[in-house]
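job 3f2a | input accepted
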Amino acid sequence: MADINYLKSRGYPQPPPLVLEIGGKLLNTFEEDFGQLYGYKDYDCNLDHRSSWEEVWADLKKEVVTNIGRSVVSLSSYDGDVRYFSCTGLLIKWHKTGIPVILTSASLVRSRVDEDKIDEKLKIKVLLPPNQSAAGTSELYHSDYNIAVISLQKRLYGIRPENIFCTVERPRRVVAIGREAEDGLLMGTIGKRVKKRADDKLSCEDLKLSTCQIKKVGIGGPLVSLFDGCFVGMNFYGETDVTPYLPRRIIVEVLSGVDLPSQRGTDHATDIMGEATVKKNRWPVPKPYWYHPRFDDDAPLRFFGRQLQ
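job 3f2a | predicted structure (309 res):
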């Protein structure tokens, strides 16, 4: 019953009969780590058994690691007491005012009833380890590119928001960054930008690819340059050997011409698309499902359905 109550509080599907009792696993959860984990001051748990073999943080400059630790946040949305979605976000300087806001995926607040809208009743929790948290408010979203901008209801201290509204070179080697949903540990994995292949089934012509392999909690997190940590794009997630990301150029184009609703005295989130109806950039988020190797065919144990990143 303790396991069942935990699953309910996290919004996960209940296991089929006996699957939990015989050691079945719930896959595609927000608790799955990726890459090499990185702790923070006073975090005293050994992370070696949870990290991959690759060296990530040692390959980054010390200043870059510090900046990442003070600009990448964990985000969770809640419907009442039940978690709705968890992902990663990047603190950025808003281009017109310089105030810090969070860039992330619109899946954090997307409505299950109408996927072209967000659910403003969802509560947003922002976590910046080791001990800072704040409530967030949906400001802007783009229902086609799946971008969301979240403002903070209270100030966070010691942050280093990224200025994404400047021109930078496009590096070949990159790092995908995420924050773990529970404790807020940083996760990183190194890869390189690659060209689309003929068999890549990307519905969005503007999405690019990297060889960085992440998990669902890395959705909305930044792809940065291995050399200097500059923002390259925002990661999505796919169950393949490559990870799609929305390039910095597209994000800047979308956000540059708009104001934050709160600065105009509006208390409702605004769809940047307005009345436009183009729907060419959808990328599905795999749903969690139950699996056990005893079953020759795990299809009956899958809870099919899609969310949008």
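job 3f2a | Confidence is low (pLDDT under 50) at residues 303-308.
job 3f2a | closed
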